[in-house]
Amino acid sequence: MLTSIYLIAITAEAMSGALAAGRRNMDLFGVAVIAFLTALGGGTVRDILLGNFPVTWTQHSSYIYLTITGGLVTIVIARFMRHLHQLFLVLDAIGLVAFTVIGCNVALNLGYQTPVIVMSGITTGIFGGILRDLMCNRTPQVLRHELYASVSLVVALVYLFLLREGIDDDITLLAAFSLGLLLRMCAIRWKVSLPVFSYSQARWQ
């Protein structure tokens, strides 16, 4: 089940990366690179930080084909994207939760302590989007709009808590997914965000 969700998630993230590249008028190679980084960048950064080698996607070439194809297909269907905006918000939320849970599982299997496991989940969940925005010369969206990174944090904490309480794995996964999706959808619907820190030198003098 988690594998299927993961494949959906990396495809959706690849397409979001391609759209970001299109807004910057990149060529086909640029679109493919941004799609790849958006979809698989979080897992790559996680594996490097945790010393989990070989990096996951290097052992599954199908992930490379899937993400690059998803990015290039986006070019063809871009004109219809405005009609699919809500669908992509849902897919992106699924990707966030799926990547977070997968990141937690990787660190769990490597025997890391709780703080590292949580950060592994968050890194996997959000870092692809950060790489996408940095490559497209934008302030990372995950740090400035509706609740996103904080949703990943909550999912990681709830997932670990339920696992350590001995709750059935399937129930734990369903609970973490449901909560994560609910929080993300509510944040989008009602524009919920964390307080913003705005520093102005003139203001504080």
UniProtKB/TrEMBL annotation:
It is a multi-pass membrane protein. PANTHER family: INNER MEMBRANE PROTEIN (PTHR30506), UPF0126 INNER MEMBRANE PROTEIN YADS-RELATED (PTHR30506:SF3). The lineage of its organism: Bacteria, Pseudomonadati, Pseudomonadota, Gammaproteobacteria, Pseudomonadales. It is found in: Cell membrane. Belongs to the UPF0126 family. Keywords: Cell membrane, Membrane, Transmembrane, Transmembrane helix. The chain crosses the membrane at residues 30-50, 62-81, 87-108, 115-135, 147-164, 171-190. This is Glycine transporter domain-containing protein. The keyword Nucleus does not apply. InterPro entries: Gly_transporter. Pfam families: Gly_transporter (PF03458). Residues 6-78, 90-162 form the Glycine transporter domain.
